[in-house]
Write a sequence for this structure.
């Protein structure tokens, strides 16, 4: 797929719409195929059946968003391995499908409702539901109270779902990670993570500066963490925005990647694989000397 997107045809980049979002989250395709998603689950055998001898007394249901399952399964695997190493009893329900965010965000909430009901039922038996995507977790938290017909506060999945970095930082609270990553990384602060989830302090507010991602990376041996100019400005992905306004999305993404590169970093890292996917598309197309890596892969790294 990327071979075609990076070809030397001279086509206008905005016309190519190279973001993988086209292929994973085309809203019209999702709307027409939603009934299939209820029948044929997206399964990732690589991350099933994770347990730990030193499990804390908490049962964690692993929520792997469909685009991560399809495009970045290694992020799901790293999430499972990391939580297991930290003492959680982790289970991956193979019947899980999309959470419904693409359809709901595109205005097709009735089509998303069945997926919300399915996910709520599937994860009902877990103490915590943890996933490696800020935007998907935020959608479940904020969208499911509206979508679920029999919604009960504090009893449905929205009350138990956590983004993985948030879960590790706020719930598990480790003092040490047995991880090593001897590289300079530029931290990408995604819009959902900053402004909906509080993974870091937003630059537009006069509040004390903090970053949960930085706190976690500080426990990784050898890593050097830097941040770009305009540290929490949008990268231009924005889900459906990258489809409907792809020329603007590409321009914003290029600006963001260039600012990351100006830090001298070898990698761009963050908690939202969708933002990293968008920037990696630009990197591949423009053949830029920088890479993207999900923060969970660094926290789980032993290289």
């Amino acid at each position: 797929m990327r071979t075609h997107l990076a070809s030397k045809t001279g086509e206008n980049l905005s016309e190519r719409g190279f973001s993988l979002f086209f292929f994973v989250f085309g809203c019209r395709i999702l709307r027409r195929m939603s009934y299939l998603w209820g029948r044929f689950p997206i399964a990732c055998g690589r991350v099933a059946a994770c347990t730990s001898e030193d499990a804390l007394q908490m049962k964690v249901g692993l929520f792997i968003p469909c685009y991560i399952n399809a495009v970045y399964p290694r992020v799901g695997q790293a999430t499972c391995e990391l939580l297991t190493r930290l003492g959680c009893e982790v289970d991956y329900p193979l019947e899980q499908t999309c959470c419904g965010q693409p359809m709901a965000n595109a205005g097709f909430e009735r089509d998303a409702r069945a997926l919300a009901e399915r996910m709520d039922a599937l994860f009902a038996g877990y103490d915590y539901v943890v996933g490696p995507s800020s935007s998907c977790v935020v959608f479940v938290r904020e969208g499911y109270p509206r979508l679920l017909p029999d919604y009960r506060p504090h009893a449905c999945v929205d009350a138990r779902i956590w983004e993985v970095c948030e879960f590790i930082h706020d719930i598990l609270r480790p003092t040490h990670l047995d991880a090593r990553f001897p590289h300079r990384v530029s931290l990408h602060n995604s819009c959902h993570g900053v402004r909906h989830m509080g993974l870091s302090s937003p630059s537009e507010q006069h509040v004390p500066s903090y970053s949960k991602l930085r706190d976690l990376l500080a426990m990784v041996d050898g890593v050097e963490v830097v941040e770009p100019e305009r540290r929490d400005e949008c990268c231009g992905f924005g889900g459906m925005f990258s489809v409907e306004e792809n020329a603007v999305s590409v321009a914003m993404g290029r600006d963001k990647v260039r600012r990351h590169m100006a830090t001298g970093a070898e990698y761009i890292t963050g908690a939202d694989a969708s933002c990293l996917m968008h920037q990696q598309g630009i990197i591949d197309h423009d053949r830029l000397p920088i890479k993207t890596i999900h923060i969970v892969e660094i926290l789980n790294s032993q290289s």
